[in-house]
Structures are given as structure tokens and as C-alpha cells.
């Protein structure tokens, strides 16, 4: 049981749960009146970071060849950029 709690995947899962709660708090604070643009961009950043954690720790991309991992990291950056620009231009 101790190895389950102390594994990197368990820690990543705990971080994912905490980030999900943070996104919920940001979204609920914004709904009651606040800086919509900043909150939306923060939610995008957290969402892409969560996708990165899932890719690295649950899809085993941490141990993948450097080209595949680099492509995944590049995809995450491009996705964040595209989402942010589309939101800001909409």
C-alpha cells in the first residue's frame, strides 16, 4: 500500500484532482463577476498542463524516445497558443 501512495502516478493523480478543483474555483468566481479573459486564459493553461500530466505519467511519455516526447510537448504548446488566440480573437 505504501508504494501505491508514494508512486509518481499517484502523486500526478493527486495533482490532477487539485488542479481540477482549482479550475472549478476559478470558473465559479468568474461566473459571479470578475475578469473573464484572465480567468479563461488561466483555465486554458491549467487544462493544457493537466493534459501534459496525463500524457507524461499515464501514457508513459516520460520514458518515450526524445522525438516522441518532444512532439507531445510541442503539441501542448501549440494547442495552448491556438486556444488562447482563438479565444482572444472571438
Automatic annotation (TrEMBL):
A GO CC annotation given for this chain: plasma membrane
Keyword set includes GTP-binding: no
Chief location bin: membrane
Protein name, UniProt field: Prokaryotic cytochrome C oxidase subunit IV family protein
Membrane topology term: Multi-pass membrane protein
Subcellular location: Cell membrane
InterPro entries in alphabetical order: Cyt_c_oxidase_su4_prok
Transmembrane regions: 37-59, 71-89
Pfam name, any one: COX4_pro
The organism of origin for this protein: Mycolicibacterium llatzerense
Protein keywords: Cell membrane, Membrane, Transmembrane, Transmembrane helix
Amino acid at each position: 500500500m505504501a508504494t501505491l501512495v508514494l508512486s509518481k502516478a499517484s502523486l500526478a493523480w493527486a495533482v490532477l484532482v487539485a488542479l481540477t478543483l482549482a479550475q472549478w474555483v476559478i470558473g465559479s468566481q468568474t461566473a459571479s463577476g470578475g475578469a473573464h479573459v484572465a480567468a479563461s486564459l488561466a483555465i486554458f493553461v491549467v487544462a493544457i498542463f493537466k493534459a501534459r500530466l496525463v500524457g507524461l505519467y499515464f501514457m508513459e511519455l516520460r520514458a518515450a524516445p526524445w522525438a516522441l516526447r518532444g512532439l507531445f510537448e510541442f503539441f501542448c504548446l501549440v494547442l495552448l497558443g491556438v486556444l488562447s488566440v482563438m479565444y482572444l480573437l472571438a
